[in-house]
Amino acid sequence: MDMNTLKIVAPVLPNLPWEDRPSGCAAPLWRYSKNPVIPRDLLPDSNSIFNSAVVPFKDGFAGVFRCDDTNRRMALHVGFSKDGIHWDIKTEVLRFTGADPEVAEWVYGYDPRVTLLDGKYWVSWCNGYHGPTIGLAWTEDFETFHQVENAFLPYNRNGVLFPRKIGGRYAMLSRPSDTGHTAFGDIFYSESPDMEFWGHHRHVMAPAAFEVSAWQCMKIGAGPIPIETSEGWLLLYHGVLRSCNGYVYSFGSALLDLDQPWKVLSRSGPYLLSPQTPYECMGDVPNVAFPCAALTDSATGRIAVYYGCADTVTGLAFGYIPEIVDWTKKHSIL
Amino acid sequence: MDMNTLKIVAPVLPNLPWEDRPSGCAAPLWRYSKNPVIPRDLLPDSNSIFNSAVVPFKDGFAGVFRCDDTNRRMALHVGFSKDGIHWDIKTEVLRFTGADPEVAEWVYGYDPRVTLLDGKYWVSWCNGYHGPTIGLAWTEDFETFHQVENAFLPYNRNGVLFPRKIGGRYAMLSRPSDTGHTAFGDIFYSESPDMEFWGHHRHVMAPAAFEVSAWQCMKIGAGPIPIETSEGWLLLYHGVLRSCNGYVYSFGSALLDLDQPWKVLSRSGPYLLSPQTPYECMGDVPNVAFPCAALTDSATGRIAVYYGCADTVTGLAFGYIPEIVDWTKKHSIL
Amino acid sequence: MDMNTLKIVAPVLPNLPWEDRPSGCAAPLWRYSKNPVIPRDLLPDSNSIFNSAVVPFKDGFAGVFRCDDTNRRMALHVGFSKDGIHWDIKTEVLRFTGADPEVAEWVYGYDPRVTLLDGKYWVSWCNGYHGPTIGLAWTEDFETFHQVENAFLPYNRNGVLFPRKIGGRYAMLSRPSDTGHTAFGDIFYSESPDMEFWGHHRHVMAPAAFEVSAWQCMKIGAGPIPIETSEGWLLLYHGVLRSCNGYVYSFGSALLDLDQPWKVLSRSGPYLLSPQTPYECMGDVPNVAFPCAALTDSATGRIAVYYGCADTVTGLAFGYIPEIVDWTKKHSIL
Amino acid sequence: MDMNTLKIVAPVLPNLPWEDRPSGCAAPLWRYSKNPVIPRDLLPDSNSIFNSAVVPFKDGFAGVFRCDDTNRRMALHVGFSKDGIHWDIKTEVLRFTGADPEVAEWVYGYDPRVTLLDGKYWVSWCNGYHGPTIGLAWTEDFETFHQVENAFLPYNRNGVLFPRKIGGRYAMLSRPSDTGHTAFGDIFYSESPDMEFWGHHRHVMAPAAFEVSAWQCMKIGAGPIPIETSEGWLLLYHGVLRSCNGYVYSFGSALLDLDQPWKVLSRSGPYLLSPQTPYECMGDVPNVAFPCAALTDSATGRIAVYYGCADTVTGLAFGYIPEIVDWTKKHSIL
Amino acid sequence: MDMNTLKIVAPVLPNLPWEDRPSGCAAPLWRYSKNPVIPRDLLPDSNSIFNSAVVPFKDGFAGVFRCDDTNRRMALHVGFSKDGIHWDIKTEVLRFTGADPEVAEWVYGYDPRVTLLDGKYWVSWCNGYHGPTIGLAWTEDFETFHQVENAFLPYNRNGVLFPRKIGGRYAMLSRPSDTGHTAFGDIFYSESPDMEFWGHHRHVMAPAAFEVSAWQCMKIGAGPIPIETSEGWLLLYHGVLRSCNGYVYSFGSALLDLDQPWKVLSRSGPYLLSPQTPYECMGDVPNVAFPCAALTDSATGRIAVYYGCADTVTGLAFGYIPEIVDWTKKHSIL
Amino acid sequence: MDMNTLKIVAPVLPNLPWEDRPSGCAAPLWRYSKNPVIPRDLLPDSNSIFNSAVVPFKDGFAGVFRCDDTNRRMALHVGFSKDGIHWDIKTEVLRFTGADPEVAEWVYGYDPRVTLLDGKYWVSWCNGYHGPTIGLAWTEDFETFHQVENAFLPYNRNGVLFPRKIGGRYAMLSRPSDTGHTAFGDIFYSESPDMEFWGHHRHVMAPAAFEVSAWQCMKIGAGPIPIETSEGWLLLYHGVLRSCNGYVYSFGSALLDLDQPWKVLSRSGPYLLSPQTPYECMGDVPNVAFPCAALTDSATGRIAVYYGCADTVTGLAFGYIPEIVDWTKKHSIL
After folding, report:
1. Going by DSSP bridges, is the β-strand pair C76-81/C87-89 parallel, antiparallel, or unpaired?
2. pLDDT in tens, A38-87
């Protein structure tokens, strides 16, 4: 599949960060040679910066970053960048406004995603409210963030909005969880008429069988905002394998039906990227590659994926969407 | 508090099952002397009948019963009774109609609750859809049950509707769970404009501290449909203590704010009833007393509580609502 | 199916213990009204007598009994009976002879089975040899027991011989285990040319899906010696369900192919018997019904099943083999 | 051994509760035929009364009782009795006085022991201070109880004083534990010059090997105050076996060296008593027999053992000390 | 001990891979300076290549390699090499032929060993058949592999054949396991007259006591094919220590009796090699050094050990067998 | 705070190891650029050298070092150094003398601390006596070490003496534990009149709430000997966070009341140092930074902290005590 046959519904983004495929590399995704693109100590008191979300904004990029401080408290911070590589992250933590007092109290928040949707930038994140659930807020300027109700009951993580309404309703993927280091996890789909009440919950994907695709055999969760293509929604998602020495987070790709996204059209057996470099294998949580955002240039099909590395730093990886779509279909385990 | 000062919003129900308080008993709730009121083998192939829901219906009572068969498959059955004690339970399992095919497939269902709400009998139950969640359906005749969407994402149990809209919205209590014998559990409150989409989730109660009220220190969950009184919603709820020999399920009471039911006005430190009789202590799951329904006579303040015993049979217990309200306030741990 | 159409390959045994089906009972198996047939303290120092094996012997019956003493050490004892109900169990423990010194040392042994095979009474039991495995021995007189090699590597339990060679080889069912209270367990089939070396291992049955037959959803294991019928080998087997309060052991039935016994022809969804009486629900391990032996009268089709109750005492249950075969086929979950 | 040869260092106590050995009983200990001697609801708000300590006091008996209320909060209560069978337990909880404010705050307390020592009645109990540890207090009148420092760091349970100084120092047995349902437990010995500072810790006994004495193979702990005899300190102690359905608490006996009580002279392989009656097998924690006190008449050698049953009620058992000493030596596993 | 006194029963193998001991190194085994000798991505789609087996073949070497693909499916591949360092591994997976259809179905296979035995190259591996067990096959040309019956019932791993019959029978070491990340593991010995039926199981070694040799205190398993010497079978075996951060796999050596190999003559307390380099400490499973094969030159006593590193790549280590034999005896913990 | 306002009660120690703060570093503690200061293989047979204690001695320094050998047996060794950086560690293990034979037997010992106290060098360590507890010994010459009684009952770790009597008594911090990789842990304070009997146990600190300071949210334990300052005892202590991939050990600081050291005056929310370098993140136990000793120069306020890295090697970090005191107060979570 190439750019002539695959339609990508996304803006033209000529300034997305980019580095050509290294010679000899046949993989559909390759790492940025200067990874990690964001070091753990970019902020004066940051212990780690990872699992963060970026979008095109004005003539550059904006983002919501997970920055744990040296108390190892989880917090969100706003950042801006001209080139998507050098980031100016605010030292003060992001605080939301406007929520009902009962849910507005900040306990903790992490692993944000951001998408432009109906003219606003919507942020979803794992929000502490008597356990982890999915927080929601919107901004127009990355200065004031208007928090709305939590989408779901606890315990939930990895809530990821679709970038447009589907069938007239807002749509979100999420992974129901438990209160700890959850050892299970499927991806579900939910709908809302108003971003306030949610229902029509549908099961999307379970972990794969161990014999079929072991890197995703314990739990899975949606990664960046799904990318609309003529072949379906392209979803990058993480998968977890539990070895005798803990969890290993890799990520792969799937194509979801455009109108009924809980129907999976194809799903990659191989991972797109698994933790193999020192900055992915060594850090606060070794062996984690966890994507939360992707920038797409519909003109060239280029994609730049931001992913957390070892829960410590942020990495970048590059690819071409048509190639990834082809590869997903070719290596599908469905 | 007596019937002159406490207003109970419920029908007059002179035919509710009843037995006077035994002499010498000072407890706010006492067991029916002929317990278990429903034996395990009332149906030809039933292994157990428990955790079931009854409501006034026509000139008697109707109910939805959890009847596990001798495969120990969980199923729901409809039953009718003139006196609330002798039940005619249908041998065929209850099947719902009308749901979206994606959620209509029956996997398993258990622990139903039933309430009359806006002229229909609404059933909520723990419904198997890629894990346990809250199923919803309504009937007008206890013959045809119209299933609607599952209220929440998995994993959830003990979804209990309020018997009227609150603040213009349907309201439900539930206990988010995990995929197994969940070792945690708080009660949450959720709202819906339409029984289809749910939101505005609020935390109601966490388990109590071990030193304060140990029978409810591991997890709690709503029991029968809350009863509206002038002192607040009277909620009977179960609590679980984990000993070195497993879980013990008892139940107590709480009063919730009428308009903001997530605000707890009082909460009993003592249990109302804990497993102490052979039929509560011996059975498929020893040491379980688990209430799912209550009949109320607003004229006398009498209440008849149906509760599952040892996950095997069904018991009845009696009391006076004004006394229980008083007792709850007097022994509150808040 | 009746005695005209079902052929049972077993001796005529008019003196097997028996009690007619109680009126009103429709179940394929019913308990002896004087259960437990063997009390826990039949021996001066016995803590419990259960999970034991009996066979016709001379003009009565002989058996190998699991008798734990008041140290709660597990041991085997020989016993004799005229009527299968009143037993004379020897106070001294059974000791085997003739084994290689390396395996002859007695560590512990439990849950024996006995069958007449090629003119000898063969005993298999769970034998402690650096973990539980399957011990084997034979006797002709129930006085001297000749131990041979352990059949398998540890960790294994519930080794049950077939009462004749199949395809020219000895045949055994067993349940590979781990070192503790194993939370998994399938039944496997193995062959031996000589009772010394074993191979050709085949998988027979896994636990059933929770939604299909929950009483056998965690682990299963063969019970009494399989009974040869014209419809296949009738196997009674136990199944285990794990509740939040521990394991529950029930038992059901299956029909195995006569020539390839690893092929299951039918398998009961319902249990034949689950722990429901006080002597099954209360004792050293509550909620256990665990069959290890059955006496069969091929003339009448009667079967008397000996089963351990709560790991404390021994019970008897009765039925008709043709009815059980019919019932197994009718309620098969295959 | 008989009363002529065994010297028992204890008062003459002709009024200790007593019932002769039932005919046909050969066991060294037999149950009171009217057990449970103290029902669970002797107090208006008691959920259970068990694991309690009694001593001769004035012309009758006094005791410190574990009475959990219907919040299932653990508390201690004082009680008095003329005959050791009918008890008058105070409804108000026991409160200690005089301790340093830092340790005086009552959190929880359970499983008391009491002994007369140097003219005072000393109480030890499991005391909540940032986890369970051993609380200590003394009284002269069972009205005012003077609390001193906790003997040890958390986490500890079953602290049992010797009834006299040994080698010039106070002496205590205890069982170091963890914060939950501890799955291990040895008995240790400690000394103090002043009941304030403790040291010279010695290991006394570990759980027995599974193959040797399974009822005590997971953890053990001292029971009543040791009884001084010419054959050593007679210690009754509980042992725990973990089945697939939880913990089983039985108790046996040991003889400790008079001068170096950490040296075990003999230790019973069989249990003296294991949970076998309905009131021991059914209750808040099934299958528990847990002795905390014993009354001894040195004139006759009689002993009356108070033991908790199923963590719910209190039972009595009787025996003759010379017989128990003999039996312990005869069945010793050392 | 030197080459004059120690007899090694092995071919002369002058072309085995080799690198002299680094100066200053006193250890009996040293790493290849160019480790890892096989990188994780030698195959186009390989995620990792490790835990693999090599033997002399024709004028060079052949091997069976564990190559997990980027689905992280485990598979076996054949490879050839002239020098034992540069390997040509086939991209297609190894498929066996000739087995009974019931066991022939490929589910998964890993951790192979290969030995020349009676003129054929025998492969044993961990073979998925309703759980892990020991698969067996032979080849003469490393092109066609004839699978025979699985040697044992599940659950088993690390099945390692001896290179000749012992006492007239084939002989194998193995480590019975459970279904997951087994937390226990002893080495057992089994015999077979025909490679089809196995018996005469003997216990060889348990994990060492924590205080004696902690690196092998949780489980142990045989490594390469045992090497016959005049001092006994030299067995390299792995041992596992569980830290708070997971399992650590090291390896040591033992000498087994030539005729009764279940009798251990000496056993090293120190490890020969533990994970200390980045390629051993970082990868899919950190801190793993796992030997599966060794090449031996009987003329010089040289040994080249292939071992898996971090479950990701393959390393080489070198030594002299006489030195290792001496060292094993000198540092024996027996 | 500076040297003019903060009084440090410690010797003048101009020769303590030192390296100035790197330019651009704002942290209160910085690593030695030549870390690790002690490699794992400094001894011929050492597997690792870490968690060790040093003090000024004569014109240089002496220390007690945890040196695990290649059996991975834990042992203590004595060492000497002129500059605190280059160490001469004795190859023979440290053996204590003079203890009661019952406790003198060496089982294992690790994680020592050393302080000069009343003219003697006192060593405390985790000592194996039927489980881990706190061993105590003193020396005057680092040649003969006189062992006294274990301070506490098992199970205890991280026993740390104060360098002078407080309120006329010896004082120690410790962390009661369980028998394994304890998943809980508070710091307690105990007193002794004579180093023989201990009591007056007080709770000092519990782990912090996850939302407040996650690096210390699972367990905490005292590190080096507390340093007396005019602002209180400066305590460096480790804290543990459990991720899905195991424990992470960091360390921070607290100020304790001079006279009542169980009263915490301030406690750092941020860590002083967390594992971030390869030698802290990679090794036998990845992600461990564990301080056991500190050298202090009261003239300059300099502090040199020795800390174990990945349970493998020893690192050094430097700082100024007045800065650390200020920082602790400024970032206190109390």
Report:
1. antiparallel
2. 999 999 999 999 999 999 999 999 999 999 999 999 999 999 999 999 99
Residues 6+ apart with CB under 8 A from D75: D66, D67, D68, D69, D93, D94, D108, D109
User: Dihedral (C-alpha) F39, F42, F46, F48: value to the nearest 10 degrees?
Assistant: -20
Query: In this predicted model, what pLDDT tens digit does every residue of A274-319 receive, in sequence order?
Result: 999 999 999 999 999 999 999 999 999 999 999 999 999 999 999 9
CATH number, domain of F275, equals 2.115.10.20
Band of the pLDDT at C1, cuts 50, 70, 90?
low
- For residues E283 and E322, is the Cβ–Cβ distance under 8 A? no
DSSP C113-182: EEEEETTEEEEEEEEESSSEEEEEEEESSSS-EEE---SS-SSEEEEEE-SS-BTTBEEEEEEE--SSS-
Alpha carbons F287 and F271: distance in angstroms, whole number: 14
Given a contact cutoff of 8 angstroms between Cβ atoms, the answer to whether B17 and B306 are in contact is: no
Please indicate, yes or no, if residue E3 is contained in any of the structural domains: no
Provide the token pair at F310.
């990945």
Look at residue A1 in the predicted model and tell me its pLDDT. 67
pTM, two decimals, is 0.97
Six-digit token string for C144:
């001297």
* Residue F151, in any domain of the structure: yes
Over residues E267-316, the pLDDT tens digits come to: 999 999 999 999 999 999 999 999 999 999 999 999 999 999 999 999 99
User: Is residue E201 very low, low, confident or very high in pLDDT (cuts 50, 70, 90)?
Assistant: very high
The whole domain housing A29 covers 8-18+25-330
Contact B212 D71 (CB under 8 A): yes
Contact pairs from chain D to chain F, CB under 8 Å: 95
For D68-87, write each residue's pLDDT tens digit: 999 999 999 999 999 999 99
ipTM above 0.85, yes or no: yes
pLDDT in tens, E25-82: 999 999 999 999 999 999 999 999 999 999 999 999 999 999 999 999 999 999 999 9
D87 touches chain C (CB under 8 A): no
CA F203 to chain centre: 19
Q: How far, in Å, CA of F106 to CA of F99, rounded? A: 11
Q: How far is CA B176 from CA A152, B6, B221, F244, in A?
A: 10, 33, 9, 22
Give the dihedral sign, CA F8/F10/F14/F20.
negative
**F39 phi and psi, to 5 degrees?**
-80, 165
B200 contacts chain A (CB < 8 A): yes
**Domain membership flag for residue A1:** no
Q: Determine A/D contact with 3+ CB pairs under 8 A as the test.
A: no
Nearest residue in E to F129, CA atom? E211
Nearest to E247 among A211, A245, A278 (CB): A245
Domain annotation covers residue E1 = no
Cβ-Cβ contacts under 8 Å, C282 against chain D: 278, 281-282, 286
Query: DSSP class of residue C277?
Result: S
- Smallest CA–CA distance, residue F260 to chain D, in Å, is 11
Compute the average pLDDT of residues E211-232: 98
Q: Are F132 and F141 in contact (CB under 8 A)?
A: no
Q: Decide if B49 contacts B36 (C-beta within 8 A).
A: no
Separation of alpha carbons C58 and C84, rounded Å: 12
Q: Which residues of E touch A271 (CB under 8 A)?
A: 70-72
- Count of domains forming chain B: 1
Residue in F25, F212, F238, F245 to test binding to A, most A beta-carbons within 10 Å: F245
In the predicted model, residues of chain B with pLDDT beneath 70 are: 1
For C211-231, the three-class secondary structure string (H helix, E strand, C coil) is: CCCHHHCCEEEECCCCEEECC
Choosing among B245, B249, B331, which should be mutated to test the D contact, i.e. which has the most D CBs within 10 A?
B245
